[in-house]
Amino acid sequence: MLDLVRALGCLQLDPLNVVARTHLLVLRSRVGHFEPAVLESLLWGRRELFEFWAHAASIVPTSDYPIHEATLMRGYPTGTRAWHEQLRAWVAANDTLRRQMLAELRKRGPLRTGEFSGRVAIPWNSTGWTRGMEVSRMLDYLWMRGSIAVVGRKGQSRVWDLSERWLPNRRAARPRLSVRKAVSLAAERSLRALGAGKARHIAEHFVRGRYPGLESALRALVRDGRVVEAEILREEGEPWPGTWYVHADDVPLVEALRGGAFEPRTTLLSPFDNLIADRSRTEQLFGFRFRIEIYVPKARREYGYYVLPILHGDSLIGRVDPTYDRKERRLVVNAVHAEPGQGPETGPAVSTALEELGTFLGARSIDLAGPVPPMWRKALR
Length: 381
Known about the structure:
Elements: H1 2-8, E1 11-12, H2 22-31, H3 36-45, E2 49-53, E3 57-61, H4 65-73, H5 82-93, H6 95-108, E4 111-112, H7 134-145, E5 148-154, E6 157-162, H8 163-166, H9 168-171, H10 179-194, H11 199-203, H12 214-223, E7 227-230, E8 244-247, H13 251-258, E9 266-268, H14 279-286, E10 308-312, E11 315-325, E12 330-338, H15 347-361, E13 365-368, H16 377-380
Parallel strand pairs: 12-13
Antiparallel strand pairs: 1-3, 2-3, 4-6, 5-6, 7-8, 9-10, 10-11, 11-12
C-alpha cells in the first residue's frame, strides 16, 4: 500500500461518504480488499504518510515532504492574486491569534479545531463558506506553512499538533531543496504517476499549479536522460499533437506491455480517482467524458449523484450510480450506464466488479434499483 501511494503521489481526501471515502475507493480499486487499519497505521503510527495539500487536501508520502516544503510551505502564500493579498494582510493583522494558537498546541498538546481559544483582531471576511471561521482559516494557513500537521482524526474532525513534534526529522532536514530542484523532482513524480503526458498534464498532477519553470525543467530532464520524448499514434497512424513525455524508468514497462505483459481486469473507480482527475486528458486518452454531478440539480443530472466509472482493461466502458445503506448493509445500485459499443460479453465483468465492491463495504446484499443496459441485464440480474 505504501508503494502504491508513493507511485500515485497523492490520494485526494473528500468528506463525502456516499459509498465509501474516496481515498479508500482509490486504494481498493488497485490493491483489492484491504483493512483500513493498515492505512491508519501508515498515517498515525509509522508516519510514512501524512495529510497535506497536493492538488487538493490529500494523503501524501512523508518521503515527499521536501518537495512540498519547497513548492508550497516555504513563504506561503506567495501568489499575487487578490485572495493571496487578503490572506497576507489578515494574517499580519491577527498575528496575536497565530501566536496564541501555536502556544496552545505547545502547552496542551494535540487539539481539535473547536478546542482553540485565541482572540481575533479582525474577522475573516469572505463571501464563501469560510466567513466567520477565523480559527479554521488560521489553522489552514499554519498547515500550508508547515507549522502544524494533522496528527489524527476524530470522525471527520482533524486533530492538530506542531509539525516539529509530529515530523521532527522532516522539519529539521537540511539542506532544503531549491525550488528549481523541487520542481524537477515533482515533474518526475508526476510523470511516473501519469505514465505518459504533456507538460500541461504534468502541471495538473501531484503538486498542481506549483511548477514554476516546468518547461525548462523538462528540457533539462530530457538532456539528462531522465525523461524521453514520446510519440502517441492514432489508430490510423497519425501522431497526436504536442510533445509527450515518458519517464526513462518506464520505457522497459512500455516495451513489456507491447509484448503482451498486460493483465486486464475490471474495477470501479472513485469519481475523484487519480486516473480521471484531469478531465480533458481522460477524454483524449479514453474517449470518456466525465463530470461530477454532485452540485448539479437532480433533474439535470445525466448519470447520477456519485457515479463510479467502470474501468475494464484499458477502457472506460460505463458508469455505476451506487449508494451504500450502512444501517441495512445494502449496496443500492441506482443506475448502470454503458458506453457506446458495449456488448453482453462485458456484463459478467461488471457484475463481478459490483460484487467485489459490495464485499469490501461489508454489504449483505446488492440491490438493483434503477435502469440497467439491456445487454448487461442478464449478467447483473
